[in-house]
Amino acid sequence: MSAKKTLILNKEQIHQKSKRIAYQIIEDNFDEKDIVLVGIAERGYVFAQRLQVMLQEIAPDKNIILMRITIDKLKRQLDASIDQNIHNAEEKVVILVDDVLNSGRTLAYGLGLFINVPLKKMRTAVLIDRSHHSFPIFSDYYGLKLSTILKEHVEVEFEEHDGVASDAAYLA
């Protein structure tokens, strides 16, 4: 990665965009009792944890279930695991959460875990959508759509995961 990084979102902007995503999720699922957030390890799970807290503040009457998916992103076939029984998501709204959507491969692998699970609906939420989709995967909820060139990299840093002083997203 190059040494030069350009700040694209600071801590306050990340919080504002996360809050907006949380409100959109509630608006789109107003009649639902249960919403399942499935965070893709590592930073997608951190983002899902934050969304869970915001959703519980906005709509305390809803049951916000949090799951964690671990995916081997380097393999060309689906190699993933989930931290609880996948059938806990049956007949519920599932929102697959990641920090950055680039090619769509990671989200496609995440969706693959739920292919044989009867769901009410499945949506995706990302903090940053880079719009370089190689797969027919799109963000239903996003904080920022960003046009970049392929050689650029988007890096999201969360205080609790990366040990940094403040949340930030950079273009490198």
Explain the overall architecture.
The protein has helices spanning 11-28, 43-58, 105-113, 159-162; strands spanning 6-9, 34-40, 63-71, 80-82, 93-101, 121-129, 141-145, 154-157, 168-171. The chain is of the alpha/beta class and 172 residues long. It has one domain (6-171): Rossmann fold (3-Layer(aba) Sandwich). The strands form two sheets. A six-stranded mixed sheet has the order 4-3-2-5-6-7, sandwiched between helices. It has a three-stranded antiparallel sheet with strand order 1-9-8. Strand 3 and strand 4 form a beta hairpin. Helix 1 (11-28) packs across helix 2 (43-58). The mean pLDDT is 92.
What CATH architecture label applies? 3-Layer(aba) Sandwich
The tally of beta strands, per DSSP, is 9
**What is the rounded Rg?**
16 Å
User: What share of the residues lie within helices?
Assistant: 25-40%
Strand content: 25-35%
Mean pLDDT: 92
Provide the low-confidence segments as ranges.
none
Taken together, the total number of domains comes to 1
Distance between the termini: 7 Å
Give the number of helices. Answer: 4
Main beta sheet:
6 strands, mixed
Form type: globular
In the CATH scheme, the class would be Alpha Beta
Widest sheet: strand order? 4-3-2-5-6-7
Keywords: Glycosyltransferase, Transferase
Domain Phosphoribosyltransferase: 9-153
Protein name: Phosphoribosyltransferase family protein
InterPro entries: PRTase-like, PRTase_dom, PyrR_bifunctional
